[in-house]
């Protein structure tokens, strides 16, 4: 019997062929902090033989990574910024995947009384009137953009606030930790709050205003702008993210019996 002896180069080729394909996906810190990635990524690997490398940043930075061609796709939650990204030719299309909502967290004693507010604008007005400590992410993330728009809708200018308003320039988890340490108010996405372990004396005080709706969307980077991006893999991932299996995993992801996201992709 003849034995096949492989040279070093051939061995490397075979070894590379056995490895899963890889792509880079920029995701928000709120998505990462929710823990959902730990559920989805192993199933993506199993079904597609695809390793998805996450770059965890705020929405603003994720969009800049996409504009630079440093990632193959983005998963973010700021529709206005996403539409500008598409209008600039940086993405091929926007596909809504899932949603949750933003919530206002604060000290259990609720000195500003926001638990009884009629809407988000009133809750923020009461925090401002009380001069109660408030932590802002201050990082150009989707959550930060939404927070600023809510202050503006309430007729308030965050840039003019006093020392009670603290912009920390950090992700959702770090900002929640700061709020916990300061016993301060903060706006969070519901998923990050539910998965947050250092709640201390904080509690969910206000939710339910329709303006707090929080949509996540997936956008592949345009290969006509950046020929090196792995557009084929990005499209494979998109089709998986809108599949029945992804829907079941997303809708079934719960903490203490409470769902963190609702799948709403149109197929």
Q: What order do the helices and strands come in, and which of them pair?
A:
Elements (H helix, E strand, L loop, with lengths): L7 H11 L2 E8 H6 L1 H13 L1 E8 L1 H10 L4 E4 L2 H9 L7 E13 L12 H11 L3 E3 L5 H12 L11 E3 L4 H11 L2 E5 H5 L7 E5 L6 E8 L10 H11 L2 H9 L1 E2 L2 E2 L2 E2 L4
Parallel strand pairs: 1-2, 1-3, 5-6, 5-7
Antiparallel strand pairs: 3-9, 4-7, 4-8, 4-9, 4-12, 10-11
Architecture overview:
- The protein has two domains: 19-99 and 214-263, D-Maltodextrin-Binding Protein, domain 2 (3-Layer(aba) Sandwich); 101-212, 3-Layer(aba) Sandwich (D-Maltodextrin-Binding Protein, domain 2), CATH 3.40.190.
- It is 40% helix and 24% strand.
- It has eleven helices and twelve strands.
- The longest helix has 13 residues, at 36-48.
- The chain is globular.
- The relative contact order is 0.20.
């Amino acid at each position: 019997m003849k034995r096949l002896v492989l040279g070093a180069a051939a061995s490397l080729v075979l070894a590379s062929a056995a490895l899963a394909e890889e792509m880079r996906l920029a995701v928000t810190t709120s998505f990462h902090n929710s823990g959902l990635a730990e559920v989805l990524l192993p199933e993506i690997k199993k079904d597609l033989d695809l390793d998805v490398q996450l770059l965890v940043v705020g929405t603003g930075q994720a969009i800049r990574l996409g504009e630079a061609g440093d990632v193959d796709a983005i998963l973010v939650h700021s529709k206005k910024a996403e539409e500008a990204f598409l209008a600039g030719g940086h993405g091929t299309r926007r596909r809504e995947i899932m949603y949750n909502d933003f919530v206002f967290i604060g000290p259990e004693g609720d000195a500003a009384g926001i638990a009884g507010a009629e809407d988000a604008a009133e809750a923020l007005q009461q925090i401002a009137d009380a001069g109660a400590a408030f932590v802002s992410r201050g990082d150009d993330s989707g959550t930060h953009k939404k927070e600023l728009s809510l202050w503006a809708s309430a007729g308030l200018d965050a840039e003019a606030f006093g020392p009670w308003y603290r912009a920390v320039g950090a992700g959702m988890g770090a900002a929640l930790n700061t709020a916990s340490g300061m016993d301060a108010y903060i706006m969070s996405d519901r998923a990050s709050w539910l998965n947050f372990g250092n709640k201390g004396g904080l509690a969910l005080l206000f939710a339910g205003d329709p303006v707090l709706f929080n949509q996540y969307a997936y956008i592949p980077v345009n290969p006509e702008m950046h020929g090196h991006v792995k557009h084929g893999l990005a499209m494979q991932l998109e089709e998986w993210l809108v599949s029945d299996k992804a829907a079941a995993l997303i809708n079934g992801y719960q903490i203490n019996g409470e769902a963190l996201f609702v799948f709403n992709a149109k197929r």
